[in-house]
Amino acid sequence: MRAELRIAGLEEIDAFAARLAAVLRPGDVIILTGDLGAGKTTFTQFLAGHLGVRGRVSSPTFVIAREHAPAGAGPGLVHVDAYRLDDSAEFADLDLGADLAESVTVIEWGHGIAEELSAERLEITLVRAFEEDGAGTAGPDSTDTGPGDPAPAAPIAPEPLELDLAEEDESRLLVLESTGPGWDARLALVAEQPGEPGPGTETR
Questions:
Q1: Mapping DSSP to helix (H, G, I), strand (E, B) and coil, where does residue 196 land?
Q2: Which element (helix H / strand E) includes 202?
Q3: If we measure between CA atoms, which residue out of 12, 27, 148 comes closest to residue 80?
Q4: Where are the beta strands (DSSP E) in the chain?
Q5: In 172-189, which positions are buried (b, 16+ CB within 10 angstroms) versus exposed (e)?
Q6: Is residue 39 within 8 Å of residue 149, measured between CB atoms?
Q7: CA angle, residues 188, 5, 160, in degrees to nearest 5
Q8: Fewer CB in a 10 Å sphere around the end CB: N or C, the chain?
Q9: Per-residue pLDDT tens for 25-80?
Q10: What CATH code is carried by the domain that includes residue 102?
Q11: How buried is 76 (Cβ within 10 angstroms: 0-12 exposed, 13-18 middle, 19+ buried)?
Q12: CA dihedral of residues 133, 139, 143, 146 (deg, nearest 10)
């Protein structure tokens, strides 16, 4: 199933992350795709805040994977940056399976190497508004590369995230691609724009 969702800025990205967090369950896998600066790490910070996990969420480019324990009864978060991994074999060497059942796993730069982690998954491609003409757009079939998103040094709630508004607060197109029947109903829920049930969202 596929949906497209237009996001006007950080407030709507946060709202989308809240809707997604509300339907996530242990074992879910999310693959994030997008060019440098598209907002993959920023989105993960918002999602982590709504999941209520412990610890500071930042880009794990050099440590590859970072685990965040749940602060309450919800799932934990495993945050992976696969940019420095060459192929699915190197990704498999991370041995994330042990943590998969208890946590939500979010993988930045995971397209093409992380799909075998789960038969049911959600891929989110973040496209900045000025990239929608195709120049520099890192869609699911893109070969664009670059370092992991620079992440502002900010803790998860209760303190607010210290985001670079000049760089991050701009429109996005979110392309949502679900694999597996377990995501079909949930994707329809998270892709709906409050107050605008039809325009801006395309499912197929």
A1: strand
A2: strand 201-203
A3: 148
A4: 2-7, 29-33, 65-68, 76-81, 103-108, 121-128, 172-179, 201-203
A5: bbbbbbbbeebbeebbee
A6: yes
A7: 100
A8: C
A9: 999 999 999 998 899 999 999 999 999 999 888 876 666 888 899 988 889 999 99
A10: 3.40.50.300
A11: buried
A12: 90
Amino acid at site 177 = E
Note the residue count of the chain: 204
Please work out, in degrees rounded to the nearest 5, the angle formed at the alpha carbon of residue 89 by the alpha carbons of 84 and 93: 80
With the C-alpha atoms ordered 138, 61, 121, 76, is the resulting torsion angle positive or negative? negative
Instruction: State the pTM of this model.
Output: 0.76
Which residues touch 130 (CB under 8 Å, ≥6 apart)?
Answer: none
- Strand-strand pairing, 29-33 and 121-128: parallel
pLDDT in tens, 87-130: 788 878 777 766 678 899 999 988 988 898 889 999 999 998 76
Are the C-beta atoms of residues 200 and 27 closer than 8 Å to each other? no
